[in-house]
Design goal:
Ubiquitin-like (UB roll), 504 residues, 19% strand, alpha+beta, 5-stranded mixed sheet, globular
Length: 504
């Protein structure tokens, strides 16, 4: 199955905008592709042209102006945003919303701009950014257009973005000294769950604790993200007493217009709006607003130690699905040139064109983790990654993991692979490559992970044999083995240095 006719890898923003102007309705911008690839596979979209902007320098920047205004580029991923110390300090609800998206490998691909443009009322980051009073800048050959995010939506999955426009900047106003916010989400499971309901609350209070300004945004309870103006007005001038909180929670429900669907009934969603608003206001009153969000240096990102952020220079590259342009990449340390894969996903290219079948075909929607590979050192879902994205990149699969560990290819297994054998963590084996790739990346990133960090790292990998206890035990054992090997290596080097000193 050919997913598109031509895949352009833009090397400049000007080229991307020019291509959009040329192809308009026939084209789609891609960065993460976590929604777009699924839509194409399911037949919901059929773009002739896909324009990849991930190789354009500077589009993944998070910066803050002198006046405190925050700017997020269009390729900032959920993982980058969640781990940003600037966002955690000045736009905490957005960092929390990004942390709640999917699991690590999905957060590594998905972008905030893509989440906004997809325009689902259940999307996490829209609620946070509406409450934070964010604005969007879109660009076309006609120039830039700036508008409030809250005015960007016309309905379910409908935006006011013109066919020749792309989002180039997300702006959040500078925070007042006593401005605080919190994001809360109710899903059917802890991870990889679309919101049944989500809520963001942002308050400004004076030195005495009196609320001066309130913004409450509700998600998944109407065709678009909605505000709760009556609840906001009721909070102004209060000290957030129990009665104030209860009244605001009840009034927030009045703004919800939910429907019954497979994730929850309208009645349940109304109950959740009240519960989440109540919980959020109580957290803001007590000052305990992090809601379990890890500090940046403790956050599991699965970026490993060898991650790269490759940029491409020169002219924009066109990979035509029916053309002979090769995808030139490095796979497991070997330079390869693949022809005939320009219209495929990376997973299909690895399996069908390179014979690397360790990465498994599972859900093909980013929810099972069986296809996890490393793209430029970062854990990535190959089923949601276009094959041409690997052009000029570095790909690591389960087949090359042992060689990557010791660099010799002598057959010695990676510590994680050996630990899976020792701990009987392999059952049917279908999901095992994905688990191993996630775990190995974790140990590169955090050599001594806690059990909670291990669970987070593996949260995007599903074992249908329910073998999680032994899998977690195997990762813990691999960490200990890796630590012991490192100590032996340090001892060996110290002994060699001591012998050299004595001989001199």
């Amino acid at each position: 199955m050919r997913l598109w006719d031509t895949y352009y890898t833009a090397t400049s923003l000007e080229d991307a905008v020019k291509l959009l102007g040329e192809y308009r309705e026939r084209a789609r911008i891609i960065a993460g592709g976590t929604d777009l690839i699924v839509e194409i596979e399911n037949g919901a979209r059929a773009p002739q042209v896909v324009i990849d902007v991930t190789r354009v320098s500077g589009l993944d920047a998070i910066r803050q102006d002198a006046d405190g205004t925050l700017h997020l580029g269009p390729t900032v991923t959920h993982a980058q945003a969640a781990a940003s110390s600037v966002l955690q300090e000045h736009a905490l609800p957005l960092a929390q919303a990004c942390w709640s998206v999917g699991a690590p490998a999905l957060r590594n691909r998905g972008t905030i701009a893509g989440n906004l443009v997809t325009a689902s009322p259940a999307n996490d980051t829209i609620t946070a950014l509406v409450a934070l009073d964010a604005s969007l800048t879109s660009r076309s050959a006609r120039g830039d257009r700036i508008g409030k995010l809250a005015e960007f939506y016309d309905g379910v999955r409908r935006t006011r973005l013109a066919p020749d426009e792309m989002v180039v900047d997300i702006t959040i106003p500078g925070a007042a000294r006593r401005k605080h916010g919190v994001y809360l989400k109710m899903g059917l499971r802890r991870v990889l769950a679309i919101a049944v309901t989500n809520v963001t609350i942002v308050l400004v209070r004076d030195d005495a604790g009196t609320v001066c300004e309130a913004r409450i945004a509700l998600g998944s309870v109407a065709p678009t993200i909605v505000r709760a103006p009556e609840a906001e007005a009721a909070l102004v001038g209060t000290l957030l007493t129990d009665n104030d909180i209860e009244r605001a929670a009840a009034l927030a429900v009045e703004a919800a217009r939910p429907i019954d669907d497979v994730r929850g009934s309208a009645w349940y969603r109304r109950e959740e709006v009240a519960a989440l608003v109540r919980r959020g206001l109580e957290s803001l009153h007590s000052g305990d607003v992090r809601m379990g969000l890890p500090q940046p240096d403790q956050m599991v990102k699965l970026w490993g130690r060898t991650r790269r952020w490759p940029r491409l220079s020169g002219p924009t590259i066109a990979h035509r699905a029916d053309g002979d342009e090769p995808i030139q990449t490095v796979v497991n340390g070997q330079n390869v040139a693949v022809r005939g894969a320009n219209g495929k996903t990376l997973l299909r290219m690895l399996r069908e064109d390179l014979g690397l079948v360790g990465s498994k075909v599972g859900c093909e929607e980013g929810e099972c983790g069986a296809c996890t590979v490393w793209l430029d050192g970062i854990a990535t879902l190959a089923c949601l990654t276009p094959a041409p994205r690997a052009h000029g990149a570095w790909v690591q699969t389960i087949e090359g993991l042992a060689t990557a560990q010791n660099g010799t290819g002598d057959g010695e297994l990676h510590p994680v692979q050996q630990a899976f054998i020792d701990e009987d963590a392999v059952q049917c084996g279908y999901c095992t490559p994905g688990f191993v790739m996630s775990a190995a990346n974790l140990l590169e990133e955090i050599p001594h992970p806690t059990r909670e960090q291990i669970k987070t790292a593996l949260s995007g990998n599903l074992c249908r044999c329910t073998g999680y206890y032994k899998i977690i035990s195997a990762v813990e054992k691999a960490a200990l083995k890796q630590e012991a090997a490192l100590k032996q290596e340090v001892t060996r080097k110290q002994s060699a240095q001591a012998r050299g000193d004595s001989e001199r």
